[in-house]
Known about the structure:
By secondary structure, this protein is mostly helical. It has helices at residues 6-27, 44-73, 80-88, 101-114, 133-137, 152-165, 169-193, 198-204, 208-216, 221-236, 240-251, 259-272, 274-296, 318-330, 334-361, 367-380, 391-401, 405-417, 429-448; strands at 2-4, 466-468. A two-stranded antiparallel sheet has the order 1-2. Helix 4 packs across helix 6 (152-165), helix 8 runs antiparallel to helix 17 (391-401) and helix 14 packs antiparallel against helix 15 (334-361). The chain is globular, with a radius of gyration of 22 Å. The N and C termini lie close together (5 Å).
Amino acid sequence: MWVVNGSGCRWLGAGGALAVVVGGYAAGALPVLGGAPLWQPRASAAETLGAVLAALGLTVLVAAWWRYGVLLARGAAGGVLGTLAAWAAPLLAAPPLHSADVYSYVAQGAMVLEGHDVYGAGPSVLGPGDLGADAAASVGGNWTDTPAPYGPAFLLLAEAVVKLTGGAVVPAVLLLRLVAVGSLALLVWAVRGFGKGEGALWLAALNPLLLVHVVGGVHNDGLMAALMLAGVLLAVRGRWVLGSVLVGCAVMVKSPAAVALLFIGVIAARRSGLLKGLLLPPAVAGAVAAGASLLAGTGFGWLRTQSVAGAIHTPLSLTSDLGLALGKLLADDPEPVKAVVQKLGLLAAVAVIAALAWRAHRGRIDPVLGLGYSLLALVALSPMVQPWYALWGTVVVAAVAWHSRAGQVLAVLSAALAYETQPSGRTPWYGFVAAGLVLALGAAWLRRDRWPSAAGRAPAPADDARTIA
Length: 469
């Protein structure tokens, strides 16, 4: 017999997060240049030990998160905001974890500041001695010559960071991490606004996949998701014009947030009629996009770079994997076949999104839940998929249906995807093995443990100790 309560989970998870950070100082996505003395590559033995420590810490964090969710589902825990602070705090001073994308952000901000065409060239245009050159040297090989797929609003933000830090790698990364923390705070506000209790925060904000990749990895997906969900919340409250503005800002970070405009249209149509619902939210967001493009001085080049990421093969993309396999089987050059399958996947995603929007319009599904499912379908059928992309739809589903069967499935998926990349950002085979093992354990759990209905369940006092066999 052992005693588990919310307080125990809180400090166990904080210890796991601390181990992830300590391990990351040896095995994280450390900069090639400009990281001395703390953020610099280590000897192979130290890197291996750091990777092992980080993996153990991640496992402790995931286990604590899982137990905490079970306690919340049973009404036996509370205090999620305090737990979130305890788990996120160690990550604030960490080097970039599980991805080197933040170096691309810094380099692209320097490109904008120096007048380079960020939508026509990659960070490789920054030579030694140029502003942002240290960050450009640390950009992953696939992305060195890739134009920015991000919107002008985010590039303006990256440019401001470079101005404030002079392009120095460590200060720039830490300042962008503060932006990520601000995104997390906005996400918490939006999730709480839907009124589904602390369990929604558990799946959306306390999620290890989000903590590791948004706070630790500094991915701008957190900013996109927070702005998008805040905009949807405002639309639900009847302020759909302001909500469309926020979603427009989210699109100017990353374009997938545009899916939310369709569902804001469904919400607005209930009050203002179908025609206004379909036309006005995109018009408002379009005005935001035009303004951001002109203000940034980067023009509308972002419209032509939305497909550049699809040229890079990621093993989590089902359509890319299927297309490549069929291409090797049917042709000497697999790329044309792969491209066709990728396009068919996107068409299928559009069909799923349209069907969900129609169901939402007919009142057969909550529009917010329909948005969450749509984003998950978009990720599943996209030509490029990274593990943190699952957060796009997960945070939306969590906000309105964390206690559903879908919420349980997304909890399992989040736990598994947290293992897919290593602290260095590499994706070795054993990361997929670990993710598969977590999926198998999660599937077994799903079969035998359905969470009790949230209806009529009174919350238990925070940190009430319970004895668990």
